[in-house]
Amino acid sequence: MTVKIGVIGTGAIGSDHARRINQVLSGGKITALHDFYPASAESTKTRFAADAEIFASGEELINSPSVDAVLVTTTGATHEAYVLAAIAAGKPCFCEKPLATTAAAAKRIVAAEIAGGQRLVQVGFMRRYDEGYVALKQAVQTQTGAPIMVHAAHRNPTVPTSYNTPMAIHDTLIHEIDVFRWLLDDDYVSAMVTFPRRAARSHAQLRDPQIVTLKTAKGVVINTEIFVNCHYGYDIQCEVVGEDGIAKLPDPMAVSMRLAAKLQSPILTDWKDRFVASYDVELQDFLRAAARGTASGPTAWDGYMAAIASDACVTAQENEGQAIAINCPPRPALYA
Ligand code: NAP
Fold first, then answer.
1. What is the pLDDT of residues 51-103, one digit of tens each?
2. Are residues 322 and 192 in contact, defined by beta-carbon separation less than 8 angstroms?
3. Does residue 44's CB lie within 6 angstroms of at least one atom of ligand 1?
4. Which of 15, 32, 33, 149 is deepest in the core (most CB within 10 A)?
């Protein structure tokens, strides 16, 4: 079966997902596009989806018989309405991270999915599909003993001046928030933020860098540096310290060179390149499940748990040095 896919939001990642569904993956075809900015939908159609119909609204797209499943790849604050509409239409929905920008909005999505009685939502936490994280999780589960600490870093070369301090949590740390829950099979109990001096390349709306300390129910302490104007590259680091040893996320494969009296290897600069393979795997997983009328992978519950932790981290930013409690409700049966 070929799943007919409608994409809402054809910006950077929406158009790239349209490309991968039509050109890389199997089992899906882009039949419908919508974007607030019609030229963007036109451009995606021209480049990757010649047969797709362009819809005047996301709601019309969701309810069209030419759409079996939906990709929501608009800006975060607009996800909720489209995901709720997809659930109401009974159509599988892949929603880019964050599921919603507040825990209250994510909770409404969870409630709607539970009311419908079946899983329809997959959240775009693609790191769970990354070969490196999968290998790291296996090492943590089988070799390094019970985890005690995690040291991590999320570094971007630069961000635009529209990027502000809370976005370091909602847009950036949200990946770590989800992947550490998954990696450690644990939930969070508190968050604390510390700001070193502001880096010279930071800007008026942004306190950069920052260090977020999360504590889990099993007592693991996770320190993550977020440095989004680090200048030198896009660099994701993660090291888990266990009872018996340490496991480290592998760096992306790169040729190491001995040149001009230096030992050197390149570092990526574009986030699109760092997890390119995992985007393919996560969307193939979505297509396989959508063909059965359901969803796989990271759940709306995972999106909700990430949103609760993310809200606490933003409160922690506003109360530097204070531990902010994170209260996770019990997991409903649909997400067992
Ligand atoms: P983008 O380039 O700004 O694209 C978003 C597009 O959605 C824009 O064309 C925007 O139009 C359109 N849009 C905004 N609100 C809309 C609405 N209510 N209805 C229809 N169209 C709307 O952003 P992006 O980088 O692709 O990011 C999109 C989402 O993907 C975000 O949630 C982001 O966090 C996520 N993302 C995930 C990853 C990942 O690694 N998993 C990477 C990048 C992005 P206007 O420009 O006219 O507003």
1. 999 999 999 999 999 999 999 999 999 999 999 999 999 999 999 999 998 99
2. yes
3. no
4. 33
- Residue 40 Cα: closest atom of ligand 1: 9
Alpha-carbon gap, residue 152 to 25, rounded angstroms: 32
Residue 238, C-beta contacts closer than 8 angstroms, at least 6 positions apart: 133, 136, 150, 151, 152, 153, 176, 179, 183, 248, 249
> 178: Cβ below 6 Å to ligand 1?
no
User: Is 130 touching ligand 1 by the criterion CB < 6 Å?
Assistant: no
Task: Specify the CATH number for the domain of residue 260.
Answer: 3.30.360.10
Q: Tell me: do 73 and 22 sit in the same domain.
A: yes
Residue 167 shares a structural domain with residue 186: yes
Output the domain CATH number for residue 51: 3.40.50.720
Q: How far is CA 170 from the centre of its chain?
A: 10
User: 75 alpha carbon to ligand 1 midpoint, in Å?
Assistant: 4
Cβ neighbours around 288 below 10 Å, total = 16
State whether 234 and 122 are in the same domain.
Answer: no
User: Over the stretch 195-238, which tens digit does the pLDDT of each residue have?
Assistant: 999 999 999 999 999 999 999 999 999 999 999 999 999 999 99
Is ligand 1 within 6 A of the CB of residue 123? no
**Residue 257: domain span:** 128-268+306-335
DSSP 169: I
Q: Are residues 23 and 143 in the same domain?
A: no
Q: Is 171 in the pocket of ligand 1 (CB under 6 A)?
A: yes
Is this model's pTM higher than 0.70 or not?
A: yes
Instruction: State whether 116 and 27 are in the same domain.
Output: yes
Question: For a substitution probing ligand 1, which of 13, 54, 57, 102 has the most ligand atoms within 8 Å of its CB?
Answer: 13
The pLDDT mean for the chain works out to 97
Say whether both 148 and 254 belong to one domain: yes
